[in-house]
Amino acid sequence: xxxxxxxxxxxxxxxxxxxxxxxxxxxxxDALFVHxxxxxxxxxxxxxxxxxxxxxxxxxxxxxxxxxxxxxxxPLLDLGQRQNKGWTSISVMNYxxxxxxxxxxxxxxxxxxYTMFNREPIGDNFVQVCTTTPCMLQGSxxxxxxxxxxxxxxxxxQTTKDGxxxxxxxxxxxxxxxxxxxxxxxxxYEDLTPxxxxxxxxxxxKGEKPKPGxxxxxxxxxxxxxxxxxxxxxxxxxEFCSPEFS
Length: 246
What we know:
Strand order of the largest sheet: 2-1-3-4-5
Helix content: 25-40%
Radius of gyration: 29 Å
Strand content: 5-15%
Number of strands: 5
Order of helices and strands: HHHHHEHHEEEHE
Shape: extended
Number of helices: 8
CATH architecture of the domain at 125-214: 3-Layer(aba) Sandwich
CATH superfamily of the domain at 125-214: Glutaredoxin
CATH class of the domain at 125-214: Alpha Beta
Low-confidence stretches: none
CATH topology of the domain at 125-214: Glutaredoxin
C-alpha cells in the first residue's frame, strides 16, 4: 500500500549538448607594469634634474596652486624621461614624487597607466606604428611588417642590436585622416607605404631626419582626390543682400 503511494519515476530527460565556448588567444603586452629591480633600474641609481630641467620643472610647478602641484606629475615625468634617454626608471619616478611631495605609489600609477612613459630603455629612435582600425584598414599591417623587416627582423617591443631603433605597436595617434602612419621620436610620418616607410628608416639610420608629415604629397589632410568643395571664390560682405542692406 505504501509503495502504491510513491510517485511514478519520471523518464530521464536528455539535456542538450552544451555549446562550446570560443575565446580569442591571449596576447601579452610589451609594456612593463610591475617593477622588478635590475642592475640598470633600481632605486639606488641616482637621478635628479640637471640645472636646465630643474628650472623648467619649477616653472611648470608654478602654474598650479601650491596645494595642487601634484597636477604637474605628467609633464615632470615627461621631462625626466627625456633627460633619462627616453625612458622612465624607478629613480625618475621617485625623484618626481619627492619633488612634488607625493606618495611614490601615486607616481607609479601614472607612469604605468600612460603608454607615453617607457618603463624599459629604448633605442636612439623610438618607432611607434599605429595599428588601430583606421590605420589597419589602410594597410598598417604591411607598414609594421616593413618596419620590422627593415630593422633586422625584430618584433614589436624589441630594440635593434646596435641600439639605434626600438619599435612598438600602439593604439590611435590621432592622425586617422592620414592613415597609415607611424611616429618616430616626436614626429608624425603619415600616408605611408612599405616603400616610403623603409626610406624614412634608412634616413634615420644614416643620421638624417626626413621631413615629417604626409609622405604622399599632401600638405596636411586635404582630400587626396582633389578639391571637391569650396571650389569657387567665396562671396564678400554685402553680396547677395537686399538692396537696402547693401
